[in-house]
Amino acid sequence: MLIENVGSTLVLSGDFDARSTWEVRNALRERLSGSEMDVVVDLTDVTSIDVTATRVLAYASREASLAGNHVTLRGCGPAVRRMLHLSRLMRFVDVERAAASA
Q1: H/E element holding 10?
Q2: Model confidence over 89-102: pLDDT tens digits?
Q3: Which residues contact 3 (CB under 8 A, 6 or more apart)?
Q4: Residue limits of the STAS domain (predicted)?
Q5: Phi and psi of 65, rounded to 5°?
């Protein structure tokens, strides 16, 4: 799992699973603690995701909301969307709609 900070965006790539949740959780906490801005988590280059990882995203969204901030998931491919639906966590996270192609 590679994590990169780009402005207010946290860009993730690789396998997002139980082995990388601690690292992602810490990166999200760091971004949201003492921050007045919203955070975007870019999952475009995430190759696989498991239910533990989706729970980290849902928990971060909830904690951000309680603090008056917002977490948006960007670039959710079919595998990520499927796992969010299967885990029933889709209702707890904000998924950015794909831009309409011209």
Answers
A1: strand 9-16
A2: 888 899 998 754 44
A3: 10, 11, 12, 23, 24, 27
A4: 10-102
A5: -60, -40
